[in-house]
Amino acid sequence: MQRSVLILGGYGNFGKRIAKALTADGICVIITGRNKAKAENFCQELPKGLTNSACFDVTENLEAQLKKLKPVVVINTCGPFQNSNYSVAEICIDQNVSYIDLSDGRDFVTGINTLHDKATAKGIAVISGASTVPGLSSAVIDHFKDDFSEIKSITYGISPGQKAERGLATTQAIMSYVGQKFRTVKGDNTERFGWQDIYRQKYPKLGSRWMANCDIPDLDLLPEYYGIKRVRFSAGLELSAMHLGLWGLSWVIRLGLPVKLQNHAHWLLKVSNWFNALGTSDGGMHIILKGKDQAGKTLTKKWFIIALKGDGPQIPTIPAIILAKKIAHNQSNLIGAMPCVGLVSLEEYLHELTPYNIKTYKEET
């Protein structure tokens, strides 16, 4: 019997990319969401015989649907995860179904190990953060770490193209911490606020773009897993006016305006799309590692991944795709609940991105 993968939010920004990659590998997928027509219509874009659809509210009917559909793994793309609980993952555990999500919620991902004993008892994998951070960020660190005797700091960030497709959940996630004070990082008491501490980052092919603070799981995970003392992650908007406008709004929030921007994310996303004609569909990510080499000398490694022609949104989906393939093909020995740190190698990641307009660049000093 074919082992299927159930994708929550299967016709959404990330879900549809995951579904196309899995079916291209011959894996059956079940496209789910609240809109039956959208689920069925998207299934028509996928290979025949490898798709099914289901329409239900995950907060009410997930257990019954898992019993009926019997997937081997559930991929949860239904963010934002910043204020979510683990009910979906817990239901999956109860039904002996492995679970993967694309969360970048700091507390959500770092706290997933609270489900470790339950998942271990069932012999299944529960993986949170199977996305760019910490999935790709940890893959890059693992790739370069043997060149270092010590990694003292990592400065990195993401700048998508203005025209690149973006979803409401991502917008809600960012708005949830704009202007808000971050929890301090272990070993680093630097005070940080969302979308502040702006700076300019130069990228190959893209030129320079503004960057600003974002709150992500890596702030806690990278010091724990790799002993990195200073972790700074930022994101940036391609259009300077939009980036600086949000930076200005972050100061209003920081000074005490009682507004929950995430409640206005739908409107803010709509407004941002009005300016698409002024931007491009090209985006990138930079990772700068600083420390000492094996001889004790100062070493800096710079790594960039550049996505052109709108292919940037493929990058966050890759860890979930790779891990789901391994589980569906009985090639995974992962058991228990864990963040997606060191679970996907950089070689695996880049191989999965081969069909797309995506290239990497390296510099060393």
From TrEMBL:
Gene3D superfamilies: NAD(P)-binding Rossmann-like Domain (3.40.50.720). InterPro entries: NAD(P)-bd_dom_sf, Sacchrp_dh_NADP-bd. It holds the Pfam family Sacchrp_dh_NADP. Residues 5-127 form the Saccharopine dehydrogenase NADP binding domain. PANTHER family: CARBOXYNORSPERMIDINE SYNTHASE. This is Saccharopine dehydrogenase NADP-binding domain-containing protein.
